[in-house]
Amino acid sequence: MSEKALKWTDRAVVVFAWSSAIILICALFLLIGSLLKNGWQTLGLDLIFGNAPPLDAILLKRRVFGGLFPAIAGTLLLVVLSVSLAVPIGVCAGVYMSEYASAGLRRILGLCFDILAGVPSIVVGLFGFSGAIILHRIFDGFRPCLAVSAASLAILVLPYLVRTTQTSMQGISPGLRITALALGASKMQNIVYVLLPRSMSGILSGIVLAIGRCAEDTAVIMLTGVVATAGVPGSLFGQYEALPFYIYYISSQYTDQAELMTGYGASIILLCVCLALFLIALGVRKGLSHQVFYRI
Amino acid sequence: MMINRDKTFKTALFICAAASALATLLIFGFLLVFGLPLFKGGQFFLLLGRPWAPGQGMYGFLPMIAGTAAISLLSLVVAFPISLGVSFFLHSLAPAALGKILKRLVQFMTGVPTVIYGFIGVFLLVPLIREMFENGSGMCVLSASLMLGLLISPTMILFFSDGFAAVDKKYIQAARALGATRVQTLLFVVLPNAWRGLMTGLIMALGRAMGDTLIALMIAGNAVNVPSSLLDPARTLTSHIALVSAADYHSMEFKSIFACGVTLYLLNAAAVIAIRRFGAVGKDKAHV
């Protein structure tokens, strides 16, 4: 290339890179801005509790109509259930992958986890749905419900937990790895007292992001028991409401301006929850590895 | 005693790992069993190419395949240049502070719920497209691809940046020492050496675009037709599954959603295997 052509390429690339960055930032702020502009007026206790006094609603003395409280309660319960199902299994599997699996087994299991991480969430939902059909054949009257959703979501986030646990344990320096062993600790003691505490920040950031995925996922729950109106969930085997599904439902089924506004309010709340979780994950682990954001 | 406890510990961990891996196979197994009548005698492949006309007993999902292909490939076309530009920017052009902030912003974007992209799409993008083209409802392939492009950009940017960062620093220093500008180094040294990162990013983003449900469901219009223009509505495999409301579990209509599920599963598994083939970004180069 001639001197001149090189110079122009140089400039063109600089302009291209800067404008790409500006377009991306503008698009993001346009989205968030339109959400806030349309929805900020709705933010307040009414948005969550409707006409019911907040304390009565929280203590379940009064049912909330026209507020987001049942959806928030449903999402909260769902997250707690699925994360407490997934974390023990995922972390144990990650420890096995890092510390015990032979190279061959690690490759095979690793392939399984990678495929599982790639399965679209709607397919995981379909799996939960077909599981519910089978249970329906065995136990009459069994329907998709909170328990099915929680189990499906647990499967959805399992591979992330395995991977974050595995990578943060494998990242421990060889020196630290053998110190306790050299002092006579058994392999299990080494894992429980040295390696796990050492990789705790990585594991925790994985858990926080798994919480985020459970809170925001809509595709899984729409096939496994979420409904538009159910009140605060009363049983594991009942239908329930959830924040992301509410947003989806309102976008197509809103009947008046007030309902639409509640939809904007719900979107702002969900976005803030995700932002908060992201910041916590960052705080837990400075220089968070990309693996955590590894997501199909 | 100690040895016994160690053994139990190891077995418990193994059971967890095996159970998790089993879930992968179990999902596929369930999809196959439930869609079984559709797979007998190679019918599956016939269905791939047929139109959807439940009234006439035709349950082909060609329209959904076309919808998924059109929307996800187009979103890649939207997202690729921007992602490449942003990762150029982050790698060697951004002022340090701005680069740091932008990178955090991109990481945050991976966690923005897709239902929110969909919601804003319905009330911001769709009316815009409708007015701009004065054609149809605005719920179309174009709207969905634009929104989906924004959804997958952060994934691409992070992988591209990883790929760039994995290029050996000595090459870069050598180029700079020979008098190459930042941009020349980027174009002629970093880019050719980062093709793995680029491929991985592209495939990951394609997988995420194919697997996303809510954006297409909310703003692509969901008509069961092979779209013939950017402004036509379309239905993807994912939204077809989401929209099923067959009351009769034995109907062919109901079974067809499992065929869609199997197709999605296989496409994404193929993407994952392709990425493993290329080797994870920087696995062999990062620590040189």
Automatic annotation (TrEMBL), chain A:
It is found in: Cell membrane. It comes from Desulfatibacillum alkenivorans DSM 16219. Gene3D superfamilies: MetI-like (1.10.3720.10). Keywords: Membrane, Transmembrane, Transmembrane helix, Transport. The keyword Transmembrane helix applies. It is a multi-pass membrane protein. Belongs to the binding-protein-dependent transport system permease family. The keyword Signal does not apply. Its main location: membrane. It comes from the Bacteria. PANTHER family: PHOSPHATE TRANSPORT SYSTEM PERMEASE PROTEIN PSTA-RELATED. One of its GO terms (biological process) is transmembrane transport. The chain crosses the membrane at residues 12-36, 68-96, 108-135, 141-162, 264-284. One of its GO terms (cellular component) is plasma membrane. This is Phosphate ABC transporter membrane protein 2, PhoT family. InterPro entries: MetI-like (IPR000515), MetI-like_sf (IPR035906). Pfam families: BPD_transp_1. Residues 72-281 form the ABC transmembrane type-1 domain.
UniProtKB/TrEMBL annotation, chain B:
Gene3D superfamilies: MetI-like (1.10.3720.10). It is a multi-pass membrane protein. GO terms for biological process: phosphate ion transport. Coiled coil: none annotated. It holds the Pfam family BPD_transp_1. GO terms for cellular component: plasma membrane. The keyword Transport applies. One of its GO terms (molecular function) is phosphate transmembrane transporter activity. It comes from the Bacteria. Part of the binding-protein-dependent transport system for phosphate; probably responsible for the translocation of the substrate across the membrane. This is Phosphate transport system permease protein. It comes from Desulfatibacillum alkenivorans DSM 16219.
